[in-house]
Design goal:
The C terminus is likely disordered. By secondary structure, the protein is of the alpha/beta class. Helix 4 links the parallel strand 1 and strand 2. Helix content is 36%, strand content 17%.
Length: 352
């Protein structure tokens, strides 16, 4: 079987694959465990969707870990959370647009792997370049010409882009090839049984990713009737003909953010990123307890609630409601926790 890096740039094979997918309105509902077992294969290139931990398909990522999928190639557009399985053999390399969790810090398992040379960085991409690569695939183009990445050393670390002269102006342009990831998993607000998927708020690159990826799994907060979807078709970002499986997974973005529904579990995220993943041994212990030690996403949430001594779902819903209310009254922004004062003294002590 060809390596993922050969498949994802093979325009002809990708188009033939897509032509073979059914356009019929088939009921695609299934359990997440079954969807991951069927559609995520060892060695696949998995692209992260949403905006890292904002509407990221966290339940699906954890299930991939439980099933111990091996030698995946990550594509971080941004993201990088799937890299936590690198030290367990789950990820061999990455295409990097951005890896990290912003103010919470770096993703330590990714950094350790790169520094040790065990996690390969196949290519560095700018945000714009990866977006153009996906857009080219969506539009059926072999490549696009743009200015992104020019003047940076990212080009030296990306064997897939080329710099040529613009035939009209003579100026240098960067030729970005269309890219076709093996598997994309989206977490959306609502979907129908055929896969038509509604997203509230920013969709980031998801529309292009849905068209570019060979295989697509949708997890959703709720499966709704198709007439409900048709009542507001403008919010459908992922269309049915791209989708292979639909899984109803309430709180499937936890401990990340689901705009309009629940906010980040910031206390848990802060502790995990800064403390639990700080060393390879600590990361292994965390994976053993939270991933391998739980049967599914809901048992993982129950474990977190027991350890935190609180109802974590009520907590994140209240944060989102506070942010939404604050935005309405002009004292904050939608779904950002508004004017709450965030302090992490206890986390900081544990991180020392």
């Amino acid at each position: 079987m060809a390596h993922a890096n050969d498949r994802i740039f093979d325009h002809k094979a990708a188009r033939e694959w897509k032509l073979g997918k059914t356009r019929s309105l088939v009921d695609k509902r299934m359990d997440l465990k079954d969807a991951v077992a069927r559609y995520v294969e060892d060695g696949d290139c998995i692209i992260e969707t949403g905006f890292a931990y904002a509407r990221g398909p966290m339940a699906a990522f954890w299930e991939i870990g439980r099933q111990k999928k091996k030698n995946l190639v990550g594509m971080h557009t941004p993201g990088g959370l799937t890299a936590i399985f690198h030290e367990e053999g789950g990820m061999e390399g990455s295409h990097v647009g951005y890896v990290g969790v912003e103010m919470r810090g770096l993703i330590a398992p990714f950094r350790r792997g790169v520094e040790a040379g065990t996690l390969k960085v196949y290519a560095e991409w700018s945000h714009g370049a990866l977006a153009w690569a996906l857009s080219a695939a969506e539009q059926g183009l072999n490549y696009v010409a743009c200015k992104s990445m020019l003047g940076s050393d990212m080009i030296e670390n990306n064997p897939y882009v080329k710099v040529e002269k613009d035939p009209w102006t003579g100026e240098p342009v960067c030729l970005i090839p269309a890219i076709y990831p093996d598997i994309a998993i989206f977490h959306v607000h609502h979907a129908d049984k055929f896969g038509n998927s509604r997203i509230w708020g920013l969709s980031v690159n998801d529309k292009a990713i849905a068209a570019a990826a060979r295989k697509v799994i949708v997890t959703c907060e709720r499966i709704v009737d198709t007439n409900d979807i048709r009542s507001n078709a403008a919010q459908v970002i992922v269309p049915w003909y791209c989708v292979d499986a639909v899984c109803e997974v309430p709180y499937g973005a936890w401990p990340g953010d689901m705009p309009g529904m629940y906010y980040f579990d910031r206390r848990l995220q802060e502790r995990v990123v800064r403390v639990e993943w700080k060393t390879a041994e600590a990361t292994k212990n965390w994976v053993e307890q939270y991933i391998y030690g739980t049967k599914d996403h809901f048992e993982m949430i129950e474990l977190a609630a027991k350890e935190e001594g609180m109802n974590v779902l009520d907590y994140v819903k209240q944060l989102e409601q506070f942010g939404t209310s604050a935005a309405y009254y002009g004292i904050g922004t939608w779904g950002t926790g508004a004017e709450r004062d965030w302090k992490y003294e206890e986390v900081a002590k544990r991180a020392l």
